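Hey, weird one. I pasted the MBL fold metallo-hydrolase sequence into the form twice and got a warning about non-standard characters only the second time. First submission, copied straight from the form history:
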Amino acid sequence: MAGYSGITAGYLILGDKPCLVETGTSTSAPIVRDALAALGVGPDDLATVVVTHIHLDHAGGVGDIARFFPSAEVVVHEKGARHLADPTRLMASAKMVWGDRLDTLFGELAPTEASRIRALGDTGAIDLGAGRTLSSHYSPGHAKHHVGLIDSATGDLYVGDAAGVYLPETGDLRPATPPPDFDLRTALDSIALFSDLQPQRLLFSHYGPVDDVATTLERSAEELRVWVDLTKQAHTAGMDLDHAVAMVRDRTRERYAALRADPEIAEQFELLSGAPSNVAGILHWLGKENL
């Protein structure tokens, strides 16, 4: 993504009915296709493509992957399904946020035939074959179209962005609270739901597997509270967005080794969980709370 490796994960579940969890961006789709081919999954072999939510770093490649793998069913929460069939509004919104950086960061989400899309409700299941399932659990807070996915055979839980952004180089964990959907209560409820599912591992879309489930989920909730508390202080003090971002960034800096590490790692961390996006999302939520 955006020229970085090790920044956005797609996970292949091999079995009777191979399943790809997350596609990454449109610009990454050829890399994903070639990686699947190297693992023995050809154009007609992939049974399912499922995304945790429709943000472009997770689902931007859906249309391309659907074209590369014409037998695959595309699975998404019902609140995101129409945007995969007709990405016009989603891409217009992304253009407003990212401007000229959109093409470099994400590329263009191509439409997927509506007949190939299966929309999930708040719970659902994807058949992986031989009695194995990938169960979907609605987990908004980060986004209203977000689901977590747990593998019945392994206990692996695909957490999308609902547990934040994990950086394996430094072990940092930072929340992802972008506008317009962030809501603290539902975000904390989603983390509690993940804990109740008793997964064996957490598979972060950004980036990689984590074995220490309980500690990591506790930290996810703590990070959310820290960022919300600091943003509330800035909001109460009447700060505008720029000053609020500067204050929160300064007061959280020591929490993250990445920001004291190699400049490229720090830049990668900011791209995935930028302070401006996080603070803007929390301020948007605070505004709704105060209506």
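That's the output from the first submission. The warning seems to come from a hidden character in my clipboard, not from the data itself. Residues 213-236 form the longest helix (24 residues).
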